[in-house]
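Structure ticket #2291
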Amino acid sequence: MHRVSRSSVSAILRRGGASRRQLAAAVFSSTSSLNASGTDVKSESRWYSSFTDKCNPFGSVTHFNRSNGYFMPRRYESTAAASDSSNAPVEKYEYQAEVSRLMDLIVNSLYSNKEVFLRELISNASDALDKLRFLSVTEPELIKDNVDLDIRIQTDKDNGIITITDTGIGMTRQELVDCLGTIAQSGTAKFLKALKDSKDAGAENNLIGQFGVGFYSAFLVADKVAVATKSPKSDKQYVWEGEANASTYTIKEETDPEKLLPRGTCITLYLKRDDKGFANPERVQNLVKNYSQFVSFPIYTWQEKGFTKEVEVDDDPAEATKDAQDGQTEKKKKTKKVVERYWDWELTNETQPIWLRNPKEVTTEEYNEFYKKTFNEYLDPLASSHFTTEGEVEFRSILYVPSIAQQGNNDIINFKTKNIRLYVKRVFISDDFDGELFPRYLSFIKGVVDSNDLPLNVSREILQESRIVRIMRKRLVKKAFDMILGISMSENRDDYERFWENFGKHLKLGCIDDRENHKRIAPLLRFFSSQSEDEMISLDEYVENMKPDQKDIYYIAADSVTSAKNTPFLERLLEKDLEVLFLVDPIDEVAIQNLKSYKDKSFVDISKEDLDLGEKNEEKEKEMKQQFAQTCDWVKKRLGDKVASVQISNRLSSSPCVLVSGKFGWSANMERLMKAQHVGEPSALEFMRSRRVFEINPEHPIIKSLHDVCQSGQEDEEALRAIDLLYDAALISSGFTPENPAQFGGKIYEMMGTALSNKFGAPVKAQQQVAQRQGPGTFEAEIVEPAEAGGQK
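Resolution: structure written out below.
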């Protein structure tokens, strides 16, 4: 093995003007002499650097290029010598952490709400009780000292101290070090792993913990935490103490006989100055009811109570002296009612949640009572659904349809409601969701969902996006639709009318947002129609009433039922007895356009061009178009760019004309709504306004008169003004807004003046004509002289 001498390299480096080219030449000289000596070329794949004196581990040789004096890489196959280098010793290190900084991150970064500390500590106590109950099946002696399994919370409001005591399994000294002294090591997770490895792997468990950091949430509100614990497997009781922002903790043996526990754990929190409000007994009780109401073990809180009793009142000395003088020896003593105060334990939680019971055993009254109590409602729900889902995702749920919408809260705009309460193993997690479990158009659905294996983040406050959540959402939505469908099929139509009045807009929004559930939403929609102006009908009822040769579902969008039933678009359809849906809600038209069809029947807007009513007489239409072709061109010339074209109408019977919208643009109703939007851009409005087609009724007298004028070839100003007036009138009758209302009003006034002058101005003109025929003549007149007073002239 040849090595480049260190002396030659050092000599080059000592020169002030030494360059990489000189250094490379020295190395190349050495390698060249190696090749000249007859060494195998393959040995070049294992060369030594003159700088590190170590073998190149990459199995490639850097060769010197004589032309430019630089090293050039070249790759060779690996050799046995190269493989030997992989046997070099490897040193393994463990990650290190600054404990105080890590604790600060765990306490202040994982949790967004301080009050969850009580939920975490109660969950730990519940796990300890569950472990004891499970182990006592095979080791009954573990619970011989204390059979009661419960959790007790006591507060000291004045000193800011909270004490949480459980009669669970407790911890030994080593378990204190392992569980509380080792961050992110979960004793519950370790216990579950042992269960899986044992023969009891299939046993049901209700253990909550999984991350090993819930205990440290106590430092959210406490400066100091003391944990006294006694395990039935040990004769000694130990006390663990730790402080916030500290990297050390202490463990000592408890020697005070008054503080000894028969079994279990007692956690004492010394609250921070700003968080002493958590030591209020009422606040603790409310937190337990909110987060841990359905924990499977009884939770007692130390509460102040009172009872009323009567006590004697001392007599007034003056009255006693007076009574003695009067000789009254016997008198009834005076009493008053006082409230006697005392402190005692009070059961705060319910033992078994209603959703864990068999639905067959729960009455309607119990469901309604649970609904009112959980969601602070005063009316019974319209419907409820209690179900259990098994398989890939397992969860239990109770869903409700409220009987009335929330007052002062528009769920369509603000869909982040608190209507769904999520529990994991009966522990409340959150009710603040942004569409994870229900789409926003079903945000009015209320209920509870309880699962054992939801993907939560470490703080157990955020539901992570995953396939499990998507499956759960899909099944919840299906159950919600089943409930609503049950209401719609009920014999009592008033129930669904009340539902539609409160939540109909939500379902219409679902037509826009949720294409996957169109088939579930469509049967639930309700509309007025030309044949049912007072009572809404479903799409199923419309389809049943369709004519045998009717292919489409017709609709017209307007601002009210009155406007819809008086529109000229309906004339020919009413003659044919074709039913037309009235879309009078602003969201109706957009919902129907997104729905597109129902039971293979397309939705058709009768205010759009190319309306097909069936039974076409092509020969008659062709003849009519040829007859009025010149008239249509004449009218189009007069109207100019106001309309895209003038056509013969097949939808009018009594009106002279109508203005229809383009097939792919906004209707008159949609144009009106978009103009009312404060964010509407003029350019977008102009673009989407679409083409307008002026349709005329060739059988109307006005159109026939205009046709005669056109055929005569005279440019009559009155006829041209009549065309302008027809267009403006068609704008209004078709639902559009005139571009110049004042000008349109002036035309109406002028027309009224002409009509009135023709009717009432004829006698005046006749008298003038008679006077002109008589010419100038003599008139007799009586001269009356003025009279003076007293009869004198």
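Closing remark: The domain at 525-605 is CATH 3.40.50.11260 (Rossmann fold).
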